[in-house]
Amino acid sequence: MATHTGKCDCGQLEWTVKLEDESHVLCHCDTCKKLSGGAFTLNQIVPKDNVKVLKGDLKNYTYAGESGNPVHCYYCANCTTSPFHHQTVLGDKYVVRTGLLDNYKELKPSAEIFGKAKLSWLPEVATTFETLPPS
Ligand SMILES: [Zn+2]
Ligand SMILES: [Zn+2]
């Protein structure tokens, strides 16, 4: 388990995340597309305690997730970069945006989730699940 550092676009927010392995989970859900403006997001689910905010102010946007439970999206109060989400349905875990970590280019895709909403012209780069992997 290695500690990774991340910074928002404006540089006011800095954080560290301990990852279980060096991988990204691609999320193709429609909310990720809306919030990022991109085709998918890069993530990993980690225990809350693995995330430390070193500096900066976080704001919080709350919306209803796939299960209907609230999801808190935390973002830099200045530039809106969002380092992690808390899906209350996951309890003491955060969904961290691995694509915002300083060494994101070294991480490899390990799975694709919400494949049902994936853009048809994207190639498959890892095992794809319709929604979430069976738990
Ligand atoms: Zn910022
Ligand atoms: Zn998503």
UniProtKB/TrEMBL annotation:
Keywords annotated in UniProt: Lyase, Metal-binding, Zinc
Domain CENP-V/GFA span(s) in chain numbering: 4-111
Keyword Metal-binding: yes
Any Pfam family: GFA
Keyword Lyase: yes
Origin superkingdom: Eukaryota
Ranges in coiled-coil conformation: none
Gene Ontology molecular function: carbon-sulfur lyase activity; metal ion binding
PANTHER family documented for this protein: DUF636 DOMAIN PROTEIN (AFU_ORTHOLOGUE AFUA_1G03180), GFA DOMAIN-CONTAINING PROTEIN
Protein family: Belongs to the Gfa family.
Name of protein: CENP-V/GFA domain-containing protein
Origin species: Xylona heveae (strain CBS 132557 / TC161)
